[in-house]
Write a structure and sequence with these properties.
With 493 residues, the protein is an alpha+beta fold. It is built from 12 helices and 13 strands.
Length: 493
């Protein structure tokens, strides 16, 4: 093809000189201008190489046919020498400028085409509704937009490699030992994983392969590879970076949208669950009140052989009533409907109110409240409930006869209330979850009664006051549960 263009360029120059020398017999100036126009036409149509060859042929022909002595390559007149040099410089410069303009026009057209393709890719990718779908469909989108023969994408978050070849069948895989004739397998999975850690783009135009990392800021999301025929026109490095940035933005957008949808679904599910638990707890408490009243009435005149059964019913009714109360409290905490009525209150009053609600047969609890403590800003009822939950937990998990101590002291601008026991302690790997709802220690979850909500309720109450709750424990040495509430200026009497 190129040989044909060279031949056509030389024939055009030869035709001009033949017509002007034998048919029209024009002067040297007219011949020079016409030859320059021919060289400009050749450069614009075919390029620099063809125009350079035409310039050399035109210079030689101009000297041979139009400068004295005619028919030789010698130049006799000094003015003709100047004309010859001027024609030579003009011919070469004209071909260079024309080729440069042609090249810049081609580059501008290529950039315009790449921008159009990027815009089309943006429109397609922004319609994806999940991060994985965006990553998996990217290989098809980029092939269609840029006319690649194959594409591959490594999604680091899931460890998957998505590939698509000339047949348009997109597939994913997690390993690199899959054998395929697909052109997209020219780039191995290992190469894609390595590219995800790199910062530079690799372009092998000889083999028609370009590999680029996909990053969002400094965070790597994966890598991509575009493949075409050997020596094919792959996108420029700037466009490859733009494609990578676009893929990163689209994936993160889809992931954020996906997480927002899941969060909203979880919020609605939690709200529904809370409402159901609250309704169920209230529905349970109504018949429990009737059962409790009936059992209390029957116990007054029961026969000895019936008293034991009625006592069991009475105790189990109390337990169900406590469970319903815990469910209601937990539902309110999770729904953010814990309405506190704060006022200055003494720590001793909070502790006293909590201990007064314990069953009459509960074993004694030691109280150590420091003298002249500042008052705390708290809701007395809810604060006492938090202490009660900690005390009941200590009584439940510590051996009979072992001491349970409730203390209160000042630490900086807070009043810290603690409940200490001599129970089995809490393993280190369970302390971070001990305040989670329904969580119970591995060693005691089956041999101790409970729902696993007491500590979660205490945590919710304390945090609603703007306080903090924590535990200090050593296996076999017991545990101390603390919570801190903000102190105010006044002091206990």
């Amino acid at each position: 093809m190129r040989a044909w263009r060279f031949a056509a360029a030389l024939l055009l120059v030869a035709a001009v000189m033949a017509v002007y020398h034998w048919a029209l017999a024009v002067n040297a100036v007219t011949a020079a201008l016409t030859l320059l126009l021919a060289i400009l036409f050749i450069s614009t149509l075919w390029g620099l190489a063809e125009a350079t060859a035409a310039s050399i042929a035109a210079v030689l022909g101009f000297n041979y046919f139009f400068l004295e002595p005619i028919g030789t390559f010698r130049i006799q007149d000094s003015q003709n020498i100047v004309a010859f040099v001027a024609f030579l410089i003009t011919a070469v410069t004209t071909s260079q400028l024309s080729a440069y303009a042609r090249r810049r026009t081609a580059e501008a057209e290529a950039r315009r085409l790449e921008m159009e393709r990027l815009y089309a890719l943006v429109q397609t990718m922004m319609l994806r509704d999940s991060a994985r779908n965006t990553a998996s469909e990217f290989v098809q989108d980029v092939m269609q937009a840029f006319g690649c023969s194959a594409a591959a994408f490594y999604y680091r978050r899931s460890g998957e490699v998505f590939r698509s070849g000339p047949l348009g069948a997109s597939r994913s895989r997690a390993g690199s030992d899959v054998v395929s004739d697909d052109a997209s397998d020219d780039v191995s999975d290992g190469a894609l994983r390595a590219a995800a850690e790199a910062s530079d783009i690799s372009v092998d135009r000889e083999h028609g392969i370009a590999i680029a990392p996909v990053r969002l800021g400094l965070r790597s999301l994966g890598s991509m590879a575009l493949m075409g025929a050997p020596h094919s026109a792959l996108p420029s490095e700037q466009t490859l970076r733009a494609i990578g940035n676009l893929a990163a933005i689209a994936i993160e957008r889809a992931r954020a949208f996906d997480e927002a949808s899941r969060s909203e679904s979880a919020r609605q599910s939690e709200a529904l669950k809370t409402a159901l638990l609250d309704s169920l707890a209230h529905d349970i408490k109504t018949p429990l009140t009737s059962i409790k009243a009936a059992v209390t009435s029957l116990l007054g005149g029961a026969e000895p052989n019936q008293r034991e059964l009625l006592t069991i019913i009475d105790e189990e009714a109390d337990r169900l009533n406590r469970l319903a109360a815990e469910v209601v409290a937990m539902a309110r905490i999770e729904a953010g409907k814990l309405h506190l009525e704060k006022r200055p209150v003494a720590a001793s009053e909070i502790v006293s109110n909590a201990l007064n609600t314990l069953p009459a047969d509960a074993r004694p609890v030691t109280v150590n409240v420091a003298a002249e403590l500042p008052l705390v800003d708290a809701d007395p009822e809810f604060a006492a409930q938090a202490v009660k939950q900690l005390v009941e937990n200590a009584l439940k998990y510590s051996p009979a006869g072992s001491p349970v101590v409730v203390s209160a002291e000042r630490r900086d601008a807070r009043i810290v209330i603690g409940v200490a026991d001599r129970g089995p302690g809490i393993e280190e790997n369970e302390r971070a979850r001990i305040f989670d709802k329904f969580f119970r220690g591995r060693r005691h979850r089956f041999d101790t009664k409970g729902t696993g909500m007491g500590l979660a309720i205490a945590k919710g109450i304390v945090e609603a006051h703007g306080g903090r709750i924590w535990v200090e424990s050593e296996p076999g040495q017991g545990s101390v549960f603390y919570f801190a509430l903000p102190a105010i200026g006044g002091r206990e009497n």
